[in-house]
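Exam revision sheet. Question 4 asks you to relate a sequence to its structure. Input first:
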Amino acid sequence: PLARLPHVHCKLSGLVTEADWHGWQAEQLLPYARIALEAFGPERLLFGSDWPVCTLAASYAEVVDLAEQALMDLTANERAAVFGGNAARLYGLGTQPREKVA
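Answer key, structure tokens:
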């Protein structure tokens, strides 16, 4: 139901720490990421590493690799949106001119 609301976005984060910290496999977690992608689409999904908490169960590189696997069927522009563009747009980053500091 939340995904049907156009103003709601989803941050894909924390998958490895919700799994068995020492035995998770990508094949176990990818279905959850793909469901989020299907529900929200690449224009409303944001990557979140969950760093440093993720290091309880995986390295940062492993978390990024898992996300890359989940998003591998997207276009380059769609992946760029999930990995940063959507967050910049949603949080209004880079849209306001910076004031000069004297």
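Marking note for examiners. The radius of gyration is 15 Å.
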